[in-house]
Amino acid sequence: MRLVLVGPPGAGKGTQAEFVAAHLSVPKISTGDIFRANVSQGTPLGLEAKRYMDAGGLVPDEVTINMVRGRLAEADAADGFLLDGFPRTVPQAVALDKMLADTGATLDLVLELIVDNDEVIRRLSGRRTCHGCKKIWHVEFDPTTGEGVCDRCGGELYQRDDDKAETIAERLKVYARDTSPLIDHYGAQGKLVGIDATGPVEDVTERAINELRSFSA
After folding, report:
1. Using CA atoms, how far apart are residues 148 and 159, in angstroms rounded to an integer?
2. pLDDT score for 214
3. What does the alpha-carbon distance between residue 31 and residue 68 come to, in Å, rounded to a whole number?
4. Cβ distance 84 to 13 under 8 Å?
5. Residues of 87-122 as b/e, b for ≥16 C-beta within 10 angstroms?
6. Which of 53, 62, 93, 146 shows the greatest Cβ crowding within 10 Å of its Cβ?
């Protein structure tokens, strides 16, 4: 099965991608992993991407698409995959459709993790990171025994800039502008399935797997 997982920041895409991919016995493919692999291996695409990243710019679609194309051509993705973080825009989705069509394949399903903005801000703004061991805690969901002190190493906890409410709100605006149109794109193809991403992680996973069973039935 060939899947794409979409959803706003804080929806739990990384976690659900791991569980769903394991259930389907297909590789989880994230753009973050692809970028790191290409940069660390010094591939031509990795060097080009690093040039943009070092300058603080966005990596062009062409570079990202070519990295994804190379990863999907690897043997472990021949019978299926779960893409997390790609496509992020409609032009990238069109490119994905074309690269699959070129190999005689099609995308089977797009799982959309649905969570409202208030919940996203609640999840992300409560994160606290340890200066020492870098473990991430949460003031509500995974609090430390003493306020502001890491239970693992005793280090001081701090809130990353990325986890501040104003930064999260801006990320949500970017998602609404750039990525939300994917919902209409895949909805028009009849490939979109919405998953309620609120509640315990295991409940969200069960909902996703149940939807996949319905699709396969």
Report:
1. 10
2. 86
3. 7
4. yes
5. bbbeebbebbbebeeeeeeebebbbbbbbeeeebbb
6. 93
13 assigned to active site: yes
pTM for this predicted structure: 0.88
Which one of the listed residues 50, 69, 88, 164 is annotated catalytic? 88
Q: Could you report the per-residue pLDDT of 74-107, keeping only the tens digit for each?
A: 999 999 999 998 999 999 999 999 999 999 999 9
Helix axes 61-72, 90-101, angle to 10 degrees: 30
Active site residue 171: yes
CB neighbour class for 187 (10 Å; exposed up to 12, middle 13-18, buried from 19): middle
160 classed as catalytic: yes
* pLDDT < 50 stretches in the chain: none
Q: Which of 2, 127, 128, 207 is catalytic?
A: 127
**Tokens found for residue 27:** 């590789």
Active-site residue 128, yes or no?
A: no
- pLDDT value at residue 217: 65
- Tell me the CB-side half-sphere exposure of residue 36, using CA atoms within 13 A: 5
Tokens found for residue 184: 């209409």
The CA–CA distances, whole Å, from 127 to 12, 113, 130, 152, 213 equal 14, 20, 10, 16, 34
CA 184 to CA 188: how far, in whole Å?
A: 6
- Output the pLDDT for position 172: 93
Place of tokens 């959309």: 112
Q: Which pair of tokens denotes residue 198?
A: 């609120």
Residue 158, pLDDT score: 97
CA distance to 91, 126, 201, per residue, from 99 (Å) = 12, 40, 33
